[in-house]
Amino acid sequence: MPRALVTGISGQDGSYLAELLVDKGYDVHGTMRPELLARPELMPRFLQTLREKVTLHGLKLDQTERLATLVCELACDECFHLAGPSAVDSEFLGDPALFRLTVSSTKALLAAIESSGRSCRCFVAGSSEMFGRAVSSPQDEQTPFHPRSLYGLSRLAAYHIVRQFRRRTGGFACTGILYNHESPRRGRTFLPRKVSLAVARIKTGGQTRLSVGNLDAVRDWGYAPDYVEAMWLMLQQADANDYVIATGTTHRVGDLIDLAFQAVSLDSRNHVDIDPRFFRPTEVVPLCGNPERIERATGWRPRKSFRSMIGEMVAHDLAEQSAPQSRSPD
Prior knowledge:
- This protein is an alpha/beta fold.
- The chain folds into 2 domains: 3-181 and 221-245, 3-Layer(aba) Sandwich (Rossmann fold), CATH 3.40.50.720; 188-219 and 250-286 and 305-322, UDP-galactose 4-epimerase, domain 1 (Alpha-Beta Complex), CATH 3.90.25.10.
- The protein contains 11 helices and 13 strands.
- The strands form 4 sheets. It has a 7-stranded parallel beta sheet, with helices on both faces.
């Protein structure tokens, strides 16, 4: 039975990936914040179910020595490093400590794999924010990186650490350059989940208005369960490579909102306010990924449509409104 370690298993990607690995017969171990592990009654329903199928370890991202020890103790066949800050800062105004955590945890994980002497394969999560002020669209693995946020810079630093490890040791490590991907497990601060929650509350009378920023802003939005399958496929290849994981299609924020309201038979024009506080700096070149390389190498394709994904998120949040005793993931 293969064994895998998933850091950040309590997050959107970590939980979907853990479920995928369990279904494939893996012995799955995962790290999560110790304070959440100690209070299982506060876990969202999907985590309460998942904890019965995997082995959980309480670990903070700054506990790099403990992370290294865990890697060596478990003797895993595969590691998926997904833990880390996910909120994107604006124009390098984020917390510098978050940059250090991303870099130090990636270095510690790869160093532990090297010192263990095992042929453990490692996936590290990257981000489209690494491209930042992109010079062309769509972006692929050859597009120059120009991060414009501390978050994007931290992911770019981890990407170079992975590449250096691969060149120096010959080990199997790779970075998935992940574009926006959503699901009902997405945190409430992310726009698509903010929209789906608001629509559910408006439909059930919990609120009346939704405030958003630029309706014409565009994103390449995919479905999180599709993207974790791409992560797994990357580690099944003969050679380690970095790949863009994206749909190759963009949608306007306005389209997202319209679809969400349509899912509950409401007209978005009656419920949406434009708030300049939510505007981000204008992107002259939109962030849209070209997934041709991973499609060609692994056969991966994004399966769920944008419309279906938004409909699923709204349906989930409607159900949550009917069951207030349950707890949604943050």
